[in-house]
C-alpha cells in the first residue's frame, strides 16, 4: 500500500470505492488526512498502525464522547488497543458516510454503544451511554433516581421481548423508526 | 461428553417428533397456547395461534441444521447485495470479493456479463451522484454549520437553500414562457399584436412616469416602492400588454401562457413541497402513533457525530441534559395533570378561556390596525400630495411597517401569556408557535383583503368596470407593487435587525460586565421564528408572482443574501437555543408551515383570477372580463376531439367518479394500515413470548449443565473462550440471537441456577 496520494494506486482506489461507501475524492482526502498522522519513519512502512491517541487528535473525533469506543470498534488490532490502519480508517469513514445504509450504521452504532462488548445493551451500557451524552462530571450527571426512570423508559420502549436488555435486532428495530439517526450518525472529513 | 448431555436435551427432535418432547411442551409459549386454544373462539385468533405454535415448535429445533440453514439464507442474501453493505472489516470484505469473483467464474457467461454490467452501472451512478453533489449550492458552508451547530440548525439552512432553488425554478418558468417570447419577438421577425384600447373609460391608463427634471431621491423612492419608472417595466403585470405574438411558424398566445404559467408555478411548488415533506410526514406519522420511543430517539440518536467544535460539543451536552431533564419532568407533570381535582380543572379552564379571548382581542386589534394602515396608505398615495421624501416613503411603507411591528410584538406577548395557561412544556412551545404562524400568515391575508375592499369600492355602486377604475386603472400592478414593497421591506428589516440589534447586543454582552447585560445574554438563534420569517417572505412571493412576474427572481436574490447574513449572524452574534430543535421534527414543521403558506397564497390568486374583473387598461387580459376566461376561449378554438375530451374531463360526471375512486383508494389504504397495525401487535406479542421461552430454556440448560457437572466432575473445563468475540449479525431475525445464546452459556448463568 502506498503512503502518499500519488502512491495510492488506481486499482486500489477503485477497489476501495467498491468496498466502501466513499467517493474517490473522499478516499483521497481520507488518505491525505491519515498520512498527516504518520511520523516520518512510519510513512515508508506499509500497513502502519496509528495508535489511538494520535487518531483522536483528528478534529472530527476530538470532541466526540464516543471517540474511544469508535476506535475500539473499528480497530482490527489483535491487542485491542484501538489503533487503526488506513483500511480500518476507511471502514470507519464508510460507516459514518452519508450514503451508508441504515443497517450498517445501526450495526456499528450498536457496537459502539455496547461498552462491555457482550453483544447486548444492558442497563450498565445504557447508563454509560447516557453519561457520555450528558457529560461525565458530577454536576452534569443525572441523579440516580432520574437515571433509573430514564433507563426503565428506554427499556420499556425498545426491549420488545422483555428480557431486560436490548439486543441487536431490537436496537435495529428502534433505530429504523428513529427519525434523527441517519442525519446524526455521520462523520464527514 | 458434557456437550452430548446438553445436546441430548435439544436434539431428540431431529426427526420432527415435536409433540412427544416433554421439554417443548413445558415452554411458556406452548403452555399459554394450550390455554388460549381452550378459551379462544374467534376464527382469526385460532389461525394466528396455530401459526404461533408452528413457529414456536420450530424454534425448538435448534441445532446444526437450523444454524446452517440460516447461514445459507444469509449467504443467499449477501449474494445479491453489494459487498460494501456488509458490516465487515476491509480484509474480510476483500476476501468476500475474491470469493465472489471465483464463484462468478463458474457462472454462465450471460450471468457474468450481467453482473459486470450491473457493477459498471453502479459505478457510473456513483460517479454521477458525486458530480451532482459537488454542484450543490453552499456545500462547504452547510458542512461548516453542521460541524459547529449540529443538525437542527443545519435543517434551517438547507430549507433556505431549498427556497432559493424553488424560486429560481419558478422564475425560469415565468421567464421562459412569459418574458422570453416578448423579448425574442423583434429578433425572430415575430409580429406582436397589442391589445387595443376600445376607448371606453375603463381603458384609460394615466402614465405614472415622472416628467421633467427628476430628482435623485425620487429614483430611490421609485426603486423602493416599485412606482415611477419601474412601473412600466417587465417587473409588473401592467407591462405585459401583448395579446398574440406571430412567429413565422406559430402564433404565441401570451394571455394563455401567462395564466398557465401561474397555474404551473403553484402546482410545481405544491408537488415539490409535498415530495420533500413526504418522508418526514411518514416518520412523523409513525412517531405520533403511541408516542413511540421519544426517549430512545434521544438516547440512541441524540449525539450529532458530525460536531467538530469543542464548544458545540459542550453545548450539545448541556442541551441534551436539559432536554432529558425536562422530558422526565414532563412525565411527572403529566402525572400531576392526571391527579388534578375538579376545582383545579375548572380554575385552569376559566383562565385559559379568558387568556384565549385576550389573544383573539390582540389579534383583532392587529388586524384592524393593518386594515386602517392599508386604507390610509392607499389614500395617501392616491391623493398624490407630496409632503416630503421621508413622509412619502413612510406612507408607502405603512402597511409593511405595521405588519412587521405586529409580528414583532405579538410573539413576545404570546410567550408571556402561555406561562399562565399551565400546559405541558412541549405543548406550550407548539401552541405558541401555532399562534405565531396564524398571526404571520393571516396578516398578509388581512392586507390583501383591505386592498381588495379598496379596489372594488366605487363612488357610485355598482362599479362600471367591476373595480374602481378611477383610482386603480391598473389594479394588478398596484397589488404587485404592494407585494414588491413587502418583499423589499422584509429584506431591509432582516438586514437591519442583524446589524443594528443583534450585533450591538453581542458587543454589550461581551464587553459590559454589569449583571443586567449578563442576564440579557446573547441573542438566541430561535429556529421557529427564523423559519416563520422566511415562510412569510415566500408566501408573499407566491401571491405576488402573478402580479409581479419578476418577484421570484428578487426572492432568489433575497434568500441568497439572507443565507450569508444568517450565517454570519449565527457565527458571530447568536448562540443556539437552549431547547434544541430536532432535525426530524423541524423538517416536517418547516414544510408544514410552508404548505399552509402556499394554501394561503393560492386563495387570493385564485379569487383574483376567477372572480375579480381584470383591469381593462393594462395587462395581457384586456380582451377578457376575468383572467380565467382565456381558457374557455382557447378550448373553444381547439379541434372537436380534443374539445370533447377536455369537456368530459371537466364535467361533473368525471369529477364525481374521480372523487369516488379516490375515496375508495383511500379507504383501501386505511384498511391496509389498520391490518398492518394489528399484525405488528400480534408479532410483538409473539416476540415477547419467544423472549420468555428463551429465558425458560436458558434456565433448563443451566440445570442440565449442573446435573452433568455433578455426574461427571472430571470434565470441568467449559468452552468459554468463544465469548470473547460476540457474534454480531446484521439480520433482523431473532432466532439467530437465541441460537447464539444457547451455543454460548450466558455469563450470568450462576444467578439462574
Summary tags:
heterodimer; A: 189 residues; mainly alpha; Recoverin, domain 1; 2 domains; 2 strands; B: 753 residues; three-stranded antiparallel β-sheet; two-stranded parallel sheet; 26 helices; 5 strands; disordered N terminus; disordered C terminus
Explain what this protein looks like in three dimensions.
The complex is a heterodimer of chains A (189) and B (753). Chain A is an all-alpha fold. Chain A folds into 2 domains: 10-96, Recoverin, domain 1; 105-185, EF-hand (Recoverin, domain 1), CATH 1.10.238. Helices cover 54% and strands 2% of the residues of chain A. A two-stranded antiparallel ribbon of chain A has the order 1-2. In chain A, helix 2 crosses helix 6 and helix 5 packs across helix 7. Chain A is globular. Mean pLDDT of chain A is 82; it is low at 1-6. By secondary structure, chain B is an all-alpha fold. Among the domains of chain B are: 147-287 and 340-624, no CATH class; 290-333; 651-686. Helix content of chain B is 71%, strand content 2%. Chain B contains 26 helices and 5 strands. Chain B has helices at residues 2-10, 22-25, 28-39, 43-58, 64-80, 90-106, 109-135, 139-149, 151-184, 216-225, 254-288, 294-300, 310-338, 342-383, 389-417, 425-455, 475-511, 515-520, 527-547, 551-572, 583-610, 630-637, 640-650, 652-711, 734-743, 749-752; strands at residues 191-194, 242-246, 251-253, 523-525, 574-576. In chain B, helix 9 packs parallel to helix 21. Chain B is globular and about 115 Å long. Mean pLDDT of chain B is 76; it is low at 1-19, 40-67 and 715-753. Chains A and B meet through helix 1, helix 4, helix 6, helix 7 and helix 8 of A and helix 6, helix 7, helix 11, helix 12 and helix 13 of B. Chain A: InterPro entries: CIBP, EF-hand-dom_pair, EF_Hand_1_Ca_BS, EF_hand_dom. Chain A: Pfam families: EF-hand_7. Chain A: Keywords: Calcium, Magnesium, Metal-binding, Repeat. Chain A: GO terms for molecular function: calcium ion binding; magnesium ion binding. Chain A: This is Calcium and integrin binding 1 (calmyrin). Chain B: It comes from Seriola dumerili (Greater amberjack).
Amino acid at each position: 500500500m502506498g503512503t502518499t496520494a500519488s502512491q495510492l494506486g488506481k486499482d486500489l482506489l477503485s477497489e476501495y470505492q467498491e468496498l466502501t461507501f466513499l467517493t474517490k475524492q473522499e478516499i483521497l482526502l481520507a488518505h491525505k488526512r491519515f498520512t498527516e498522522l504518520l511520523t516520518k519513519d512510519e510513512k515508508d512502512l506499509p500497513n502502519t498502525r496509528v495508535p489511538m491517541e494520535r487518531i483522536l487528535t483528528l478534529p472530527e473525533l476530538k470532541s466526540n464522547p464516543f471517540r474511544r469506543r469508535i476506535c475500539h470498534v473499528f480497530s482490527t488490532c489483535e491487542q485491542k488497543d484501538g489503533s487503526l490502519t488506513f483500511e480500518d480508517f476507511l471502514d470507519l469513514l464508510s460507516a459514518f458516510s452519508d450514503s451508508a445504509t441504515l443497517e450498517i450504521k445501526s450495526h456499528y452504532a450498536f457496537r459502539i454503544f455496547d461498552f462491555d462488548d457482550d453483544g447486548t445493551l444492558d442497563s450498565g451500557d445504557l447508563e454509560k451511554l447516557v453519561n457520555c451524552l450528558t457529560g461525565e462530571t458530577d454536576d452534569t450527571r443525572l441523579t440516580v433516581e432520574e437515571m433509573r426512570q430514564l433507563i426503565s423508559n428506554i427499556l420499556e420502549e425498545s426491549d420488545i421481548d422483555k428480557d431486560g436488555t436490548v439486543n441487536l435486532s431490537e436496537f435495529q428495530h428502534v433505530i429504523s423508526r428513529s427519525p434523527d439517526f441517519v442525519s446524526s450518525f455521520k462523520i464527514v472529513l | 461428553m458434557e456437550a452430548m448431555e446438553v445436546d441430548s436435551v435439544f436434539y431428540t427432535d431431529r426427526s420432527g417428533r415435536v409433540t412427544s418432547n416433554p421439554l417443548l411442551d413445558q415452554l411458556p409459549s406452548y403452555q399459554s397456547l394450550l390455554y388460549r386454544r381452550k378459551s379462544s373462539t374467534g376464527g382469526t385468533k385460532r389461525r394466528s395461534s396455530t401459526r404461533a405454535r408452528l413457529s414456536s415448535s420450530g424454534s425448538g429445533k435448534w441445532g446444526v441444521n437450523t444454524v446452517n440453514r440460516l447461514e445459507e439464507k444469509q449467504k443467499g442474501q449477501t449474494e445479491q447485495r453489494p459487498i460494501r453493505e456488509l458490516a465487515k472489516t476491509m480484509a474480510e470484505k476483500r476476501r468476500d470479493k475474491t470469493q465472489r469473483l471465483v464463484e462468478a467464474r463458474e457462472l454462465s457467461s450471460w450471468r457474468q456479463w450481467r453482473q459486470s454490467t450491473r457493477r459498471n452501472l453502479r459505478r457510473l451512478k456513483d460517479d454521477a451522484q458525486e458530480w451532482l453533489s459537488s454542484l450543490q449550492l453552499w456545500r462547504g458552508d452547510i458542512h461548516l454549520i453542521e460541524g459547529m451547530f449540529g443538525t437542527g440548525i443545519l435543517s434551517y439552512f438547507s430549507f433556505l437553500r431549498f427556497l432559493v432553488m424553488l424560486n429560481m425554478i419558478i422564475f425560469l418558468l415565468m421567464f421562459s414562457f412569459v418574458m422570453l417570447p416578448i423579448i425574442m419577438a423583434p429578433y425572430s421577425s415575430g409580429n406582436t399584436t397589442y391589445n387595443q384600447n376600445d376607448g371606453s373609460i375603463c381603458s384609460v391608463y394615466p402614465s405614472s412616469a415622472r416628467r421633467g427634471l427628476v430628482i435623485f431621491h425620487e429614483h430611490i423612492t421609485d426603486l423602493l416602492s416599485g412606482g415611477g419608472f419601474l412601473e412600466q417595466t417587465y417587473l409588473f403585470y401592467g407591462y405585459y400588454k401583448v395579446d398574440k405574438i406571430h412567429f413565422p411558424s406559430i402564433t404565441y398566445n401570451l394571455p394563455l401562457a401567462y395564466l398557465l404559467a401561474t397555474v404551473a408555478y403553484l402546482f410545481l411548488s405544491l408537488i415539490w413541497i409535498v415530495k420533500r415533506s413526504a418522508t418526514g410526514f411518514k416518520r412523523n406519522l409513525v412517531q405520533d402513533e403511541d408516542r413511540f420511543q421519544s426517549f430512545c430517539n434521544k438516547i440512541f440518536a441524540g449525539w450529532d457525530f458530525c460536531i467538530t467544535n469543542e464548544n458545540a460539543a459542550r453545548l450539545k451536552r448541556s442541551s441534551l441534559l436539559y432536554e432529558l431533564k425536562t422530558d422526565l419532568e414532563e412525565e411527572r407533570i403529566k402525572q400531576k395533570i392526571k391527579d388534578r381535582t375538579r376545582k383545579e380543572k375548572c380554575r385552569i379552564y376559566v383562565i385559559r378561556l379568558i387568556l384565549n379571548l385576550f389573544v383573539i382581542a390582540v389579534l383583532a386589534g392587529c388586524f384592524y390596525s393593518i386594515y386602517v394602515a392599508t386604507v390610509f396608505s392607499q389614500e395617501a398615495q392616491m391623493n398624490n400630495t407630496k409632503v416630503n421624501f421621508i413622509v412619502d416613503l413612510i406612507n408607502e411603507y405603512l402597511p409593511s411597517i405595521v405588519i412587521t411591528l405586529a409580528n414583532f410584538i405579538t410573539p413576545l406577548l404570546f410567550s408571556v401569556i402561555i406561562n399562565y395557561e399551565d400546559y405541558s412544556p412541549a405543548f406550550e412551545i407548539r401552541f405558541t408557535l401555532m399562534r405565531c404562524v396564524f398571526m404571520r400568515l393571516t396578516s398578509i391575508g388581512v392586507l390583501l383583503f383591505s386592498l381588495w375592499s379598496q379596489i372594488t369600492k366605487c363612488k357610485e355602486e355598482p362599479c362600471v368596470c367591476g373595480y374602481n377604475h378611477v383610482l386603480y386603472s391598473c389594479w394588478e400592478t398596484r397589488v404587485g407593487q404592494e407585494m414588491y414593497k413587502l418583499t423589499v421591506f422584509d429584506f431591509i428589516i432582516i438586514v437591519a435587525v442583524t446589524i443594528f440589534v443583534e450585533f450591538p447586543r453581542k458587543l454589550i454582552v461581551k464587553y459590559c460586565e454589569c449583571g443586567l447585560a449578563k442576564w440579557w445574554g446573547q441573542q438566541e438563534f430561535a429556529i421557529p421564528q427564523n423559519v416563520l420569517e422566511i415562510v412569510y417572505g415566500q408566501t408573499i412571493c407566491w401571491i405576488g408572482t402573478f402580479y409581479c412576474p419578476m418577484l421570484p427572481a428578487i426572492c432568489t436574490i433575497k434568500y441568497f443574501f439572507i443565507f450569508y447574513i444568517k450565517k454570519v449572524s449565527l457565527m458571530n452574534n447568536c448562540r443556539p437555543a437552549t431547547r434544541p430543535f430536532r432535525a426530524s421534527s423541524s423538517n416536517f414543521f418547516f414544510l408544514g408551515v410552508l404548505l399552509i403558506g402556499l394554501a394561503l397564497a393560492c386563495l387570493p390568486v385564485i379569487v383574483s383570477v376567477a372572480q375579480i374583473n381584470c383591469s381593462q387598461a393594462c395587462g395581457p387580459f384586456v380582451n377578457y372580463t376575468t383572467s380565467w376566461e382565456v381558457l374557455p376561449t382557447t378550448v373553444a378554438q381547439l379541434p372537436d376531439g380534443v374539445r370533447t375530451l377536455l369537456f368530459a374531463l371537466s364535467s361533473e360526471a368525471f369529477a364525481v367518479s374521480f372523487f369516488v375512486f379516490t375515496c375508495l383508494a383511500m379507504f383501501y389504504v386505511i384498511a391496509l394500515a389498520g391490518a398492518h397495525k394489528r399484525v405488528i401487535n400480534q408479532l410483538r406479542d409473539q416476540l415477547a413470548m419467544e423472549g420468555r421461552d428463551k429465558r425458560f430454556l436458558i434456565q433448563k440448560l443451566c440445570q442440565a449443565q449442573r446435573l452433568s457437572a455433578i455426574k461427571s466432575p472430571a470434565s470441568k473445563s467449559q468452552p468459554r473462550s468463544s465469548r470473547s468475540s460476540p457474534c454480531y449479525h446484521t439480520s433482523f431475525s431473532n432466532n439467530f440471537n437465541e441460537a447464539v445464546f444457547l451455543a454460548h452459556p450466558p455469563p450470568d448463568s450462576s444467578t439462574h441456577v
